[in-house]
Design brief:
Length: about 550
Amino acid sequence: PTRILQGLSYGDRRRTLSERDCNTTQANVLSVNEHVLILYFSLNLSLSLLLSLPHSGITSLLDAKEVGMKIFEDYANSWYWILIGLVITMVVSLAFILLLRFTAGVLLWLIIFGVIAVVGYGIWHCYWEFSTLRGKPHGDGDVTISDIGFQTDFRVYLQLSQTWLIFSATYRLCAQCWNINLTFNYSSPPHILSILFLSLFSRAIGYIMSTLFYPIVTFVLLAICIAYWAVTAVFLASSGDAVYKVIQTNVTKVCPGSQCTFAFYGGESLYHRYIFVLQLGNLLVFLWLVNFTIALGQCTLAGAFASYYWALRKPQDIPSCPLFSSFSRAVRYHTGSLAFGSLILAVVQMFRIVLEYLDHKLKGAHNAFARFLICCLKCCFWCLEHFIKFMNRNAYIMIAIYGKNFCTSAKDAFFLLMRNVVRVAVLDKVTDFLLFLGKVLISGSVGVLAFFFFTRKIPVIQEEVPSLNYYWVPLLTVIFGSYLIAHGFFNVYAMCVDTLFLCFLVDLEVNNGSAARPFYMSSTLRQILNKKNSKRRKDEIAGEDEKRGTYTG
């Protein structure tokens, strides 16, 4: 800087403006040396201001870019181990569902006591960490989370006693909710009977193992739908005429020599005025396709599991390829019904999106009545969407059983459920509870294993652990991915339970155990419900079994 200032003060006179030049130019034109001097001090001042404001926008942008590069580097170094964690999740989820086939009740109680043990250990560990940090004379016990602000290294928060106090309170709240739930909900005879239903119904998956891999087909179809929507949206957004403008200039007159740069796509034609409407139409089609893909999967699984239930002799009467046969029937005969049900749900979801958009626009408004009306409409459409999802799911099951149209199937399913509302409520609650525990247990177990691995706390494989900037990046990825994989597997199990339960209700209402109308439920359920098939029918079946094999029904 000293040399620069000397050059500015004693520079060559030929680089300064002469008196004649000053007369021919504007009087306020500065010399080259003065320009450089002002530029130097301006840059110095700007740099000083930026350095004195660490939380400014530019610094935050640079920090975010640096953090993003580190996260990308962590993914590049740990992707192999992330895939291994997800494969372990698939194996554990498959084993969990197969165990439900034999020991649903025992496994449920093991999960309950396992969660109690995990919560109890969490409370003890949080209290121990809290006491240790508070006991340090010059430690971080008195520092709060608000004092240190946001930190990318989460290990900083683990050195604060306040963090462990929050964890301990959260564990205590979970323990109280857990005890209340167990006390009031899982000690009555209907719930015990529902657990028996789950144990019996889960045998169907053992006979139709291919259904566990159908979520892969759904995932591929959903990826195609998302790609179609994204490509169409980009084409619509860029379908206008390219508009060029002169940017960053203070000249208010016509400047034919200036260079125009691209600004945006637009236009004044009728087509360009309705681009937003076309984008909304594209969004509606996207929702329709997504719901149709999900409906196709539900109807396919329902048809496969229904073929298991309505086989009088299991597994002899089960079709050879029940999943493929059900998929073929759904595509060939039930496409219109599935599309109609998906369209109803897509329209309701579209209304919800429009209401969210209006609520976002009205946040700054002072019209309390309008905001209250929007909130009421959002609540009503939320309830309507969940009701339609529930009805569509059961309507698709009835379509797979009887092959009727959507409206007739929805009506039959609704009245069938209303005639057995207590059984439906209890079984649905127990199933949701069991599957939620399974998802949490699997994702939590894999997450704990990933935590010990990425933090180098497993002595056997410490050398295999990659070097990471933030160990929580692959850890959170494994936990989130494990939950999604478990969710996909357990959705198949939930569809199995719903389908077989509806078949069971239809079996109770339609059949009476006679030779013409025998019960198709298992012998265990018949004994519990005190239902019997006619003796003549049993003799006929026994005679046939002597030729073909042992009767298992």
